[in-house]
Amino acid sequence: MKGDSHQERGIISFHDFRRRRVKIGYGVMVVMLLAVAWTMIYPFLVTIFNAFKTKTDIYTFPPSLLPKDWVWTNFGEVLKYVDLGRHMTNTFLIFAGNMLFAVLFIGLAAFSLSHLKIPFRKGFTLFFMCTLMIPSATYMIPNYLNLQSLGLLNSYWAFWLPAAANAFWILLLKSFFDGIHKELFEAARMDGASEIRCFLQIAFPLSLPIIATILIFGFTQTWNEWYWAGVVITSPEKYPIASVIYKYVLSGETNNIQENVKFAILTIVMIPPLMIFAFLQKYIIRGVNLSSVKG
């Protein structure tokens, strides 16, 4: 019992769990969670298993989740229609530029709002909060016109520059920087450290959990971005992966790709986000825990 006292207590204590009503309610909650989880997992399973089916098996009625014959050649057929390596490289290049500008410019902006005595600091923060209320579609046309006047269309700068002005990421980093004790920066300034050095050597290492969360948000946004890419990119060889999926799988522009090959394309495209999330999962949990403690 002494060992149990050191364990983290859940939402239901052992004494409460002995009552019948609590057990029934707990059972209903577990069933509901499993049902919700199944509705989320089922589309992934259908996509993965259909990638190993023949075209005839996909249209078989009644449908079956598992394939009758596991066809591995569907993944080889993908290369005949789509150069996934090129377009994944394009997507990672866009993501790397987005994160570089986000950490450099957004990180410095958030650090300035949090720990520097700049004029109208509260006004800037309020302004960034107000921009979150504006629908993204309303400033898509101004962004396009600005990029057109700068001659940056059909280039990845059309992704990188807007990423450096993400108000949500600024406020997210600022809220995290607000929880860092100012004494750390004051001691560094007394030792002769500049503000840039305070950011790079103190604020940045301490904010790795929240930066990992931004990496997940940024990667998901870049990986799923197809509409903006279709607006600013005109060369098909520069398309990110989401634009290729829309063109070859969803829009029906090319009808010569069989359905099982389309599912194989979707299965391959699902792998990198899952790997990124699995790699950064512990940092995201740390960021959530630290944010909850500071809140």
TrEMBL record:
<feature type="domain" description="ABC transmembrane type-1">
    <location>
        <begin position="88"/>
        <end position="280"/>
    </location>
</feature>
<feature type="transmembrane region" description="Helical">
    <location>
        <begin position="123"/>
        <end position="145"/>
    </location>
</feature>
<feature type="transmembrane region" description="Helical">
    <location>
        <begin position="198"/>
        <end position="219"/>
    </location>
</feature>
<dbReference type="Pfam" id="PF00528">
    <property type="entry name" value="BPD_transp_1"/>
</dbReference>
<dbReference type="InterPro" id="IPR000515">
    <property type="entry name" value="MetI-like"/>
</dbReference>
<keyword id="KW-0472">Membrane</keyword>
<dbReference type="GO" id="GO:0005886">
    <property type="term" value="C:plasma membrane"/>
</dbReference>
<keyword id="KW-1133">Transmembrane helix</keyword>
<comment type="similarity">
    <text>Belongs to the binding-protein-dependent transport system permease family.</text>
</comment>
<keyword id="KW-0812">Transmembrane</keyword>
<feature type="transmembrane region" description="Helical">
    <location>
        <begin position="24"/>
        <end position="45"/>
    </location>
</feature>
<keyword id="KW-0813">Transport</keyword>
<dbReference type="GO" id="GO:0055085">
    <property type="term" value="P:transmembrane transport"/>
</dbReference>
<feature type="transmembrane region" description="Helical">
    <location>
        <begin position="92"/>
        <end position="111"/>
    </location>
</feature>
<dbReference type="InterPro" id="IPR035906">
    <property type="entry name" value="MetI-like_sf"/>
</dbReference>
<keyword id="KW-1003">Cell membrane</keyword>
<feature type="transmembrane region" description="Helical">
    <location>
        <begin position="263"/>
        <end position="285"/>
    </location>
</feature>
<protein>
    <submittedName>
        <fullName>Carbohydrate ABC transporter permease</fullName>
    </submittedName>
</protein>
<feature type="transmembrane region" description="Helical">
    <location>
        <begin position="157"/>
        <end position="177"/>
    </location>
</feature>
